[in-house]
Amino acid sequence: MRYLFRRPNANQFSDLKTEIPDLESKLGAPAADLRRLFEVPVSKTQSVVYQFFTTQSGKAWAWTCPSVELVAESEPEFYALTDRMKIPRSQLSHLPHP
């Protein structure tokens, strides 16, 4: 299963620094039209993929992480990932609950 969800604070990375050590150096300097994906394995069958893009504000470029993809082989593993990421079940109302 794959599920893409929006991060509430796309420009805030403090919560991601524990998942992706040396985040700033791995991202590099922001510039036009850049994209970076970081896959964080949780188990053999589960992973979290952080998607970074650059955005422009005035003349300056900055990194943003507007969305995260959850990847799991089964429903129980998927719901375990949603619990790990603290996604409220109310946001998953369109999916069948276990």
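[next item in queue]
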Amino acid sequence: MDVAFKNAKVFNIRDRIDVVKGEPFTLFTDAPDNTRWFTDNDPVLAVTAKGKNADFSADAIGTSTIFLIGEANVLIKELTVNVVASIEPPAVSLNTTAGKAIAK
């Protein structure tokens, strides 16, 4: 499964993505065209399904789960979406380990 944002496309996502509130995104799958899309029926995500792909908007801060259901109600994929106020960059390394001081 791949995800596309306005400024980026991410390939082979596995089971979780973080998205900033207000950000639209599209999920692309190689699932069958008759795949059904479900969410937690909460205000976090809005979805417009288009067969094996779907458009989403991150409408509220929180966590929601997307389920892709195939023939005979078989679960194809489960994806957790965490909608946040902002994406924080990772902390900068201080070039040390716990209990070891940096020599000058």
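[queue empty]
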